[in-house]
Amino acid sequence: MQNGFPNIRHMRVFLEAAATGSVSHAAERCHLSQPAATQAITRLESDLGAALLIRRRQQFSLTECGIAFQKRATSALAHLETGARAALRAAGATRRRRPSFERAVTAAQLRTLIAIANSGSFTVAARNLDLSQPTVHRAARSLEAQAEMTFFTARPSGVALTPAAESFVLGAKLAQAEIRQGIEEISRAQGKDKGTFLLGSLPLARTTIVPRAIHAMVSDNDGIQIRVIDGRYLELLRSLREGDLDCLIGALRDPPPADDVHQEFLFRDALAIVAHPSHPLAQRPSATLQDTLAYPWIAPPRETPGGQFLFETLRIEDREQTPVRIVSSSMVMLRSILAEGPYVSVVSRHQISVDENLGMITPLNIPLTGHHRDIGLTYRKGWHPTKTQAQFIEFLQKFSTVSEEGPH
């Protein structure tokens, strides 16, 4: 099994057998012979490396692994159906009386679609899948023929997805995420627990919360792998909504950024005006915002919470001559530039806690108002973590509570 997709038809046969307790009924519903249905389930079990059904003379029942995978496979196929319906709407088509195209889609077609969507190129997709370009091209065009709509359009730099394809690839990616979780639950049931957690992390949480949670999780589990993906908020949010991330930690948005995500509050953070400890204002027992305007500013991007505070609350660009000389969201850049001269910036106190303890950055004694922001977790609505993933979330919650007490 490659890239998260077992044979889709085999999954459907398994789900019918699980629902009816009978392979013969599953065969009838899937328009297969009974030997073919039995073979489909056997091959699925081989792909997953686990027995899913307990064979009895009259009726089948589910193993522990079968119960776990049934739920995930059901959700995965539901995502494919939702994606297909959205694709039909995007293409201006209507559902015909014949079975919709997602019921005949293959794992190879889904892998190809996702690879093309991620790379924007048939050539790169073929390389990533370790297939020939003609093979990828055939799978892509057969999917279009099956769906009876255009999915791919040529562009100078590669290939673009049509709105219909964008709709269906979302369902495919969410299905892929469900299957990945199902495979990890099977692993846990077998005592292996080789799970993963894909975490999108914004700058604040990278300093203390995420490292502490990762250390606790790795210390407590032998097989877990944590993958931390850094990026800008909108990029991470899109990855979350498409199933490429399990969770996002950082500043919450008000109002919520989309209807299909849920935000969970963890703690309230405060911003501070900061500089290098050698800065002239760092020696003053009290200073004012006006005092900082005589020095060059390093500003966070406007779309970040720190940038919103600087540009919208303090309205620093409305000054006759703006002191903002540099715009950057990089903590490495901020730390390095502050060390070069008398620069000033605004940043989360928690985000600089390590640098503050090391004497590399210091908050200036400038009182601020309206500078608090809510920090928390963002999930997809309807996302159900595995037990291993839920344990990591508990560690994130635990160390966020520690962070709320203040930087150390």
Automatic annotation (TrEMBL):
Gene Ontology molecular-function annotations: DNA-binding transcription factor activity; transcription cis-regulatory region binding
UniProt xrefs under Gene3D superfamilies? Periplasmic binding protein-like II, Winged helix-like DNA-binding domain superfamily/Winged helix DNA-binding domain
> SUPFAM superfamilies given for it?
Periplasmic binding protein-like II, Winged helix' DNA-binding domain
- The HTH lysR-type domain covers 6-63, 105-162
The UniProt entry, under Pfam families, shows:
HTH_1, LysR_substrate
Q: Does the keyword DNA-binding apply?
A: yes
Domain of life of the organism encoding this protein:
Bacteria
Name the family the entry cites. Belongs to the LysR transcriptional regulatory family.
Protein name per its UniProtKB record: DNA-binding transcriptional LysR family regulator
Naturally occurring in which organism (per UniProt): Shimia abyssi
